[in-house]
Amino acid sequence: QVQLVESGGGLVQPGGSLRLSCAASGSIIGLYNMAWYRQAPGKQREAVAVITSGGRTNYADAVKGRFTISRDNAKNTVYLQMNSLKPEDTAVYLCNARHLAYPQDDYWGQGTPVTVSS
User: Fold this and answer.
1) Other beta carbons within 10 Å of 60
2) Residue 29 needs a FRET pair 20 to 30 A away by CA distance; which of 10, 73, 107, 109 works?
3) What are phi and psi of 30, to 5 degrees?
4) Share of the chain above pLDDT 70, in %
5) Which of 52, 87, 66 is nearest to 19 (CA)?
């Protein structure tokens, strides 16, 4: 079992930055691919960024060049640095952990809300 707790969300003006954190407990995340998703009101959940257990990253086109995902396995934590935020980035951001070898071991956090507004 993996428990995920997100933090760092809040209200920010357009063009601003936020850093989200996802702290994992219950198991080490070194063998998990980690991802950030987001879900805006009335919209489907979408993948924002992924970082594999080996450190490879991939981003949604909408956030490329603005968001950076990283992981600190020693701290069992994954981060999402979000720069140049836009109103359309407003959503609840959720952390996901999926085991490298056993994809049925799939866990979600409760999410942290991000609002980009002037």
Assistant:
1) 15
2) 10
3) -60, -30
4) 100
5) 66
The span from the first CA to the last CA of the chain, in angstroms, equals 40
* Alpha-carbon dihedral angle through residues 102, 26, 97, 66, given to the nearest 10 degrees: -150
Radius of gyration of the chain (CA): 13
What's the CA dihedral at 47, 53, 54, 55 to 10 degrees?
50
Q: What sign has the CA pseudo-torsion 38, 71, 82, 7?
A: positive
| Residues 19-54: tens digit of each pLDDT | 999 999 887 788 899 999 999 999 999 999 999 999
63: which 2 tokens?
């956030």
For 59-71, what is each residue's pLDDT tens digit? 999 999 999 999 9
